Amino acid sequence: MDIFLIDATSLFLFSVKWVIYVLAFMLLILGLDDLLVDLVYWGVRFYKKFFIFKKRKRADETLLFDKSEQPLAIMIPAWNEVGVVGKMADFAATTLDYENYQIFVGVYPNDPDTQNDVDEVCQRFNNVHKVVCARPGPTSKADCLNNVINAIFQFEEDAGVSFCGFILHDAEDIISPLELRMFNYLLPRKDLIQVPVYPFIPHWYEFTGGHYIDEFAEQHAKDIIVREQLVGQVPSAGVGTCFSRKAVMSLLDEGDGQAFDVQSLTEDYDIGYRLKQRGMEEIFARFYVRDKKYATLRESHFGASKDYGGVICVREFFPRSFSHAVRQKSRWITGIVFQGMRNLGWSDSWIQNYFLWRDRRGALTNFVGLMVNISILIAIILYMINLIFPQSWQFPSLLAGDPVFEAVLLANVVLLANRVFQRFFFVCSFYGVVQGLISIPRTLWGNIINFCATWRALVGVLKAGDSRRVAWDKTQHELPGVQQSRQTPLGRYLVDQGDITQEQLEAELQKRHKLKIGRALVMDKLITPQTLGKALAAQAEISYEEVHPLTLDETLINDFPKRLALRYGVVPLRLEGEEMVLATEKQVSPVAIGAIARQISREVKTVMLPSGFVVLALRYWYGSKEHRESDPVLQCLQKNEHSMELITGIARYQVLLGDLLQEMGMISSKVFAQALFDFNPIKQSIGRFMCERGLISQELLDEAVSMQRSYQQKARDIAIQISARPDCEDCQ
Asked: Residue 667: which residues within 8 A CB-CB, separation 6 or more?
């Protein structure tokens, strides 16, 4: 029995020795491969530092503000994303230093919860659009995006606009404030623009979530940079990617109307290669922001680089459970390695093929990595046995006695030390020293995850018989769901508050007014402008106030730009510290509020005034002096500025032409909001502008103007009647 055990052990150790030999030489090849990329990166970095940036100042964010805003479309595929879309739209509206963008969210007909959530978001944000996919979900991300692109083109036709850039994001992405400005600056010169992706830091002991920050920190600060410099090709990360209009049209042409390959599990990766083959310009944009107020995604941990931390990037959570990480990486490996080999093949350029090899070598290195871990574990176990039991059988060393092998091992030790340094440096540069140190043991856990993912991908391909038949396996996002409040319809709210009866509401609805129900109730004198203002304030969840429109602070009026007041339908009320309070009579989009705040360099909040009060303020304060002195309505109000009864009667009939066009259904609120980006209210009337853009016909405009004039005549009749009274000056 002892002899049998000795023979078996000898045979086992002999096999292990040859496995270690093979692994050692494979590690040497892979290590030299990585070293080549390291040398190119550091060589270029030192050259720029000592020969370029010594002579030329590095660009900063001020460069991005010189170019006027072009229309951009953000594409978001959503399946089971309740609460997440609204959170992203809120974050984008309050933090993005950009206004001329639209968000298109792709949802599925069999996902009613996400649809309802997106509907609520669309009510609050006039730049968010719901796109219902043709097929039940979950299909592939590519299929969802194809539906979104079709909806974007339909919106372009409706709004008379052409988007300059098409941006890929996920619903859980946190976007840098200047991301869209950077895309705007580079478009249309660049056809594919990719920004770095930096995962959020999990707890220190969560090695599964942590290994993502290790890999992305190195890849998006070094590997992709080298790839771009040597090949000019950049793989899309699926988020934080912007395509030029030229690129999208090229993809549509190549795909016979389908921009994204619906059978690819990594359609974003494929596109980078396909566009390069078509001669498109691609860039991996690491743009460093100096101003702290724009570098809001920076990590402030000890050791983090100020430059690296201020880069424009995308932040998001990645899977923290082992099974979710394996599923996600399995999809990546299937798409990049197996489908990439089948769909893309190899190119005519040897240097392009070199990077394709680096993409696909994961199927090999993930197995090698685990085998190395196991071999090291066996060597440690044997060493411990000999140390604890010195009288046991002694076997010859597995690793000694061969000078060639010893030289290979020594080279591998040096290369391994280099790998550890590279990983530590790039993780430390963005996340700080602590995460840099933890990245070293996390590498071993990452090897296990990558091995399991590779094995799962291989099994999936073998079962399917064809890599293109492998089903899409969506990653479960780690963000907690946020339940959004549903907005009660205005008519129902007024009934619940006792302002009108159910019978009155039904009677108004049966009349089929061309106006919205709120204004129709005001015009028919069933509610007052104050009642409508209070109801709209409750819906918008903002404060309600009653302020005479002719008694505002003239200094604030003069300081607040006329173009902003007329464009957004707001007037300044007061300053509360450094915050400006604006009066409105309709819900102002958070995107518009953010744009106003940036342009006046103050924080902004809105309060709701009674219906018609803001229109009167705009006519009085921002109209011409001649109009103010000749308009009987304004003259009457000025003489009787203390009469709330008078102003209520006149305000009932005040409505902006742009609001009337929307309420009468002549133009949608989303198309109207997009058109405003090119509208100058000081130089042109809104009606004429909409006609010239082809958004409404002259007949529709004439109808709306006629209705507005009829309302204005009713207001004049009231003013003339009051002015003719002998006690007009004291009218209360």
From this structure: 661, 675, 690, 695, 696
Q: HSE, CB side, 13 Å, CA atoms: give it for residue 464.
A: 17
Tell me how far apart the alpha carbons of residues 567 and 570 are, in angstroms, rounded to a whole number: 8
Q: Is the pLDDT of residue 312 over 90?
A: yes
Q: Is the pLDDT score of 333 beyond 90?
A: no
The tokens for 18 are 């040859």
* Strand-pair category, 603-608 with 579-584: parallel
Q: Are 412 and 177 in contact (CB under 8 A)?
A: no
Q: How far is CA 295 from CA 16, 91, 175, 284, in A?
A: 52, 15, 11, 18
Closest alpha carbon to 655 in 610, 615, 695, 688: 615
For residue 389, CA distances in Å to 7, 11, 355, 715 come to: 19, 21, 49, 104
- Ranges of beta strands (E only) in 585-678 are 603-608
What DSSP designation does 288 have? B
Each residue's pLDDT tens digit, 593-626: 888 998 898 999 999 999 999 999 999 999 877 8
Q: Is the CB of residue 106 less than 8 Å from the CB of residue 133?
A: yes
| Residues 223 and 235 sit within 8 Å (Cβ to Cβ) | no
The structure tokens 């909001």 sit at 673
**Close Cβ partners of 348 (under 8 Å, ≥ 6 residues apart):** none
Shortest CA distance to 228 belongs to which of 240, 218, 220, 238?
A: 220
Task: Count CB neighbours of 46 within 10 A.
Answer: 10
Using alpha carbons, select from 44, 46, 45, 112 the residue that is nearest to residue 80.
Answer: 112
Whole-angstrom distance, CA of residue 77 vs CA of residue 171 = 7
Residue 244 β-bridge partners: 165
What is the spatial distance between Cα 714 and Cα 525, in angstroms, rounded to a whole number? Answer: 13
- The β-bridge partners of 165 are 72, 244
Backbone phi and psi for residue 292, each to the nearest 5 degrees, phi listed first: -65, -30
The answer to whether 73 and 245 are in contact (CB under 8 A) is no
At residue 498's C-alpha, the angle toward residues 494 and 501, to 5°, is 80
260 pLDDT higher than 90? no
Is residue 522 a contact partner of residue 528, using CB atoms and an 8 Å limit? yes
**Average pLDDT of the segment spanning 3-9:** 59
**CB distance 214 to 425 below 8 Å:** no
Contact 316, 239 (CB under 8 A): yes
Q: How far is CA 291 from CA 295, 315, 432, 591, 601, in A?
A: 7, 19, 20, 22, 15
Map residue 301 onto helix, strand or coil: coil
Helix residue spans in 389-432 (DSSP H): 403-431
Rg (the chain; Cα; Å): 32
**What are the structure tokens assigned to 37, written together?**
């990329």
pLDDT at 629 over 80: no
pLDDT of amino acid 482: 35
pTM to 2 decimal places: 0.84
What percentage of the chain reaches a pLDDT higher than 90? Answer: 37
E strand or H helix at 370: helix 362-388
Beta strands in 546-610 (DSSP E): 571-576, 579-584, 603-608
> Rounded to an integer, what distance in angstroms lies between the CA atom of residue 149 and that of residue 160?
16
Please calculate the CA angle 142-145-147 and round it to the nearest 5 degrees: 115
What is the per-residue burial (b if ≥16 Cβ within 10 Å, else e) of 592-617?
A: bbbbbbeebeeebebbbbbbbbbbbb
Tokens of 430: 């963005």
Q: Which two tokens stand for residue 54?
A: 């010594």
Domain ranges for the chain, please list them. 489-525, 528-730
How many residues in the chain?
A: 732
Q: How far apart (Å, rounded) are the C-alpha atoms in residues 534 and 669?
A: 22
